[in-house]
Fold this protein.
Amino acid sequence: MKAKNLNLQPGVLLAELVGTFILATVALTVANPLIVGFTLVVLVLALGAVSGAHVNPAITFGLWSIKKLEGIKVPFYWAMQFAGALLALLVSQLYKGDGFGISFASFNSFDAKILVAELIGTAVFAFAVAAAVQRQASDSAKALCIGLALLTGLAVGGGLLGQAVQNASLTTNNQSTPRVTKIDGAVLN
């Protein structure tokens, strides 16, 4: 069995790195779903012709699943997206003055509500992206649809998490049941 030729230009990888950095920086610092959604519109218009402007591992996976991206390219896209998001985190920490660092302290606490809200929000986003790329529409119409899809996915996931936080504050404190107590919104990444 012969592997396909990778044929992946450095510009594609740089576009994913820079695009993910910009989107993650806006999400981390501004944290307004409307602004994050319109940032994605700009990124899709600016980078779409270069790399497809996935700028999200879930979208890369989704586009691979509908055969819009070769499987051999997926790990390279993911590596650049991870690096771009990590760089955005470090830059935002620098400007916040919190110092640099990534904490894994909360990995031992799991709340299924957070996972399900993220999955639902990401599914809404990915479904709309798949619908947009399958249609015969102008690039600007696709970019607007994709940006609004992110806005909608953030609203759905964030709304579910908001409900969970509100309900958690109304219930009694049961230490054996993990629950959402403080969350800023959905991430979808």
About this structure: Helices lie at 10-29, 33-51, 57-65, 74-96, 112-134, 139-170. The chain has six helices and no strands.
